[in-house]
Design a protein that fits this description.
heterodimer; A: 107 residues; 6-stranded mixed beta sheet; 4-stranded antiparallel beta sheet; 10 strands; 46% strand; B: 124 residues; mainly beta; 11 strands
């Protein structure tokens, strides 16, 4: 199916490592991208093509993928990492898919 | 560096149409693939459409087929998204976005440059 599924919410203690997952059949064939969105702001790209970081994104952000699951890992989470994280991919019809989003809370 | 400037907020009645603009600066519109993404209040991101330069055609999400039209004015480097037959569920922030770091003519499915969004409210 052309859907991406994410856990609704995840929390992490300050400075600890957190993994946010995204599951979907399209991820078996196409790479995932990840966006962070803070309240009232437009999304920003934090990972693209599975594990590439745009300039300005800290190296504590990393992406991996296996089978139908893609993951975003934040190693040493900071308070400013709080927000909603959306995974994205494409499908065989060139349509862009978004996951439902995961709300990350840094405790 | 690509910058996207969107038009201002809109209030429309059910059944009407809305046209949102997205002006590109720092780049030429024809070198980019503009995506349109919306977000209803308290909801996630919903991809609507994008121009695929590799096949020279616009790709539309199935949920919006027949109701959304995207156009481009290359003389002003401005992209437009028109959504017709509006209903209350179309109340959302509409974003244009693109990948500014790519090569001209390629269809990138991820976006690192976003406009600030255009709020569209549909209410009778």
């Amino acid at each position: 199916s052309s859907e991406l599924t994410q856990d609704p919410a995840v929390s992490v203690a300050l400075g600890q490592t957190v993994r946010i997952s995204c599951q979907g059949d399209s991820l078996r064939s196409y790479t995932a991208s990840w966006y962070r969105q803070r309240p009232g702001q437009a999304p920003i790209l934090v990972i693209y093509r599975r594990d590439s970081r745009p300039s300005g994104i800290p190296d504590r952000f990393s992406g991996t993928s296996s089978g139908t699951t893609a993951s975003l890992t934040i190693t040493g989470a900071q308070a400013e990492d709080e927000g909603d994280y959306f995974c994205s991919s494409r499908d065989s019809t060139n349509t862009v898919l978004f996951g439902g989003g995961t709300k990350l809370t840094v405790l | 560096q690509v910058h996207l400037v969107q038009s201002g907020p809109e209030v429309k009645k059910p059944g009407a149409s809305v046209k949102v603009s997205c002006k590109v600066s720092g780049y030429t519109l024809t070198d980019l693939s503009i995506h349109w993404v919306r977000q209803a209040p308290g909801k996630g991101l919903e991809w609507m459409a994008a121009f695929d330069p590799e096949d020279d055609k616009t790709i539309y999400a199935q949920d919006f087929q027949g109701r959304v039209t995207t156009t481009e004015d290359t003389s002003t480097d401005t992209a437009y998204m028109e959504l017709s037959s509006l209903r209350s569920e179309d109340t959302a922030i509409y974003y244009c976005s693109t990948f500014g770091g790519g090569s001209s003519g390629y269809f990138y499915h991820y976006m690192d440059v976003w406009g600030i969004g255009t709020t569209v409210i549909v209410s009778s």
